[in-house]
Design a protein that fits this description.
It contains 1 helix and 6 strands. The chain has 85 residues and is mostly beta strands. It has one domain. Strands 1, 2, 3, 4, 5 and 6 form a 6-stranded antiparallel sheet that branches. A hairpin with a 5-residue loop joins strand 5 (60-69) and strand 6. The longest helix has 8 residues, at 28-35. The chain is elongated, with a radius of gyration of 15 Å.
Length: 85
């Protein structure tokens, strides 16, 4: 297991920093999927320019996500089992 920070940029301007543990062979996006939900956009209608679905974290829309080392000096996408320098 490798503990990393999952960083979620929310549409309202907030940034959520969530510590998560990546098992060997696990991707950052696997943890994002575990901690977020897809919710249908009630304002969506065909052709109105709205997106059909939103990814949400604690009820807020996520517009960007990535993982970093706990000290936030290196990006982490995948746990290959090797130690980060």
């Amino acid at each position: 297991m490798k503990t990393v920070m999952m960083i979620l940029h929310l549409l309202n301007g907030d940034v959520a920093k969530v510590p998560v543990a990546l098992a060997i062979g696990e991707w950052c996006s696997d943890k994002v999927d575990e901690h977020t939900q897809f919710i249908e956009n009630p304002n969506y209608q065909d052709g109105n320019g709205e997106v059909w679905i939103h990814k949400k974290y604690k009820g807020k829309i996520v517009w960007a996500h990535y993982c970093m080392t706990k000290d936030e000096k290196h990006f982490v996408h995948y746990n290959d089992g090797k130690k980060i320098k």
